[in-house]
Design a protein that fits this description.
alpha/beta, three-stranded antiparallel beta sheet, Rossmann fold, eight-stranded mixed beta sheet
Length: about 350
């Protein structure tokens, strides 16, 4: 009796590569724009995360950063100014299986879209938000933005801005965002790590990315990326480690009550044991807010890394359970039955005149 050969084992899918996420569109940003670096790093990092392109959606609003969906070979929505978080909430609520990313800028997210950003954070929708912050309106030709420092001279503020700038991290903390981090376009390795951390988090993950606008705000973050200055101007946050910085790691940050202070580690007054230890699992956001406030103090280094990473129930999980409970109690819904239930009336036809 003949015995059939066993079926051949299915071939394993080839590993994902950057090419799997590159669209056929010509990338149209100004030469030297920091957006190129962020796009390239996203295309390199997504294969490492391992989610297939057909399960990924990028949603943007309006601005230079909002061209992003065109350049990713994934699903994408180029939406209305400031409203990307609202669309992302609706999509995630209806398709919680998808990987949803919001790409926005400091103007798009914090001016016309400020309301929507607050609400997606407070609801804790499982969405990743990339907030490109170049401290200027680039697409509309160089007006000052909600994050522009006081004194910024622009086409809309020729004598210098008098508005106090928003601190995106503190806004996210106030809205109780469960994951908050910051990266910079010039540090590609760290940027990739932050993208992975944001994706791994269950809940709203806000990653602010400092991004150079080569035309209207060139070099705004140069002190944070230039080799000669960055070690004294940046502090990389590491969970469970004391806050030390400086070219020779000779400076640290300690708390006097709730007031942070920069101290020297070389004069014998303070040692490593006296320093503030970073804790990402900051349930009430007190430490996160202190760290976010560093950028508002001229003598403090700018924090980069994960500021906060806490567990909160996701909006879509609760919504899905509510729907399941309603179906169990009332049965499968019928749109036709809904139309015909309750008070109804007929509108008679008008007699022909």
């Amino acid at each position: 009796m003949a015995i059939d050969a066993p079926p051949a084992a299915a071939e394993a899918a080839p590993p994902l590569t950057r090419a799997d996420f590159e669209s056929d569109q010509i990338v149209r940003w100004c030469p030297g724009c920091g957006d190129y670096a962020i796009l390239a790093q996203m295309q390199r990092t997504l294969p490492e995360i391992g989610v297939a392109a057909h399960n990924v959606v990028f949603i943007s609003g309006i601005g230079c950063s909002s061209r992003f969906p065109y350049y990713m070979d994934t699903y994408g929505i180029h939406s209305v100014h400031g409203r990307a978080p609202a669309l992302a909430t609706g999509l995630k609520a209806s398709r919680p299986d998808l990987d949803v990313w919001v790409v926005t800028g400091d103007g798009d997210a914090l001016s016309i879209g400020g309301n929507h950003l607050l609400h997606i954070c407070r609801r804790n929708v499982d969405v990743n938000i990339l907030l490109f912050n170049n401290q200027i309106y680039g697409l509309t030709k160089g007006q000052y933005s909600p994050t522009s420092p006081i004194g910024t001279k622009s086409y809309s503020t020729p004598t210098g801005s008098i508005d106090a700038p928003f601190n995106p991290l503190r806004i996210a903390i106030a809205a109780n965002a469960s994951f908050i981090a910051r990266a910079i376009d010039r540090d590609l390795k760290h940027l990739s790590e932050m993208i992975k951390r944001a994706h791994a988090h269950r809940g709203t993950a806000l990653l602010e990315i400092y991004q150079d606008c080569i035309v209207f705000n060139k070099g705004a973050f140069a002190p944070l990326s230039d080799k000669a200055s960055k070690e004294d101007r940046v502090i990389y946050l590491h969970h469970g480690e004391p806050m030390i910085f400086g070219k020779t790691r000779d400076k640290g940050i300690r708390l006097d009550g709730l007031q942070p202070r920069v101290v020297s580690l070389t004069d014998g007054a303070y040692g490593t044991a006296d320093l503030l230890v970073h804790d990402e699992d900051d349930e009430h956001g007190t430490l996160a807010d202190i760290i976010a406030s560093f950028q508002e103090r001229e003598d403090f280094p700018r924090p980069l890394g994960v500021v906060r990473d806490v567990e909160r129930v996701c909006y879509e999980d609760v919504l899905e359970q509510r729907v399941a409970d309603a179906v169990e109690e009332r049965g499968e819904p019928s749109l036709q039955e809904l139309f015909e239930t309750g008070d109804t009336w007929e509108v008679p036809e008008h007699p022909a005149s």
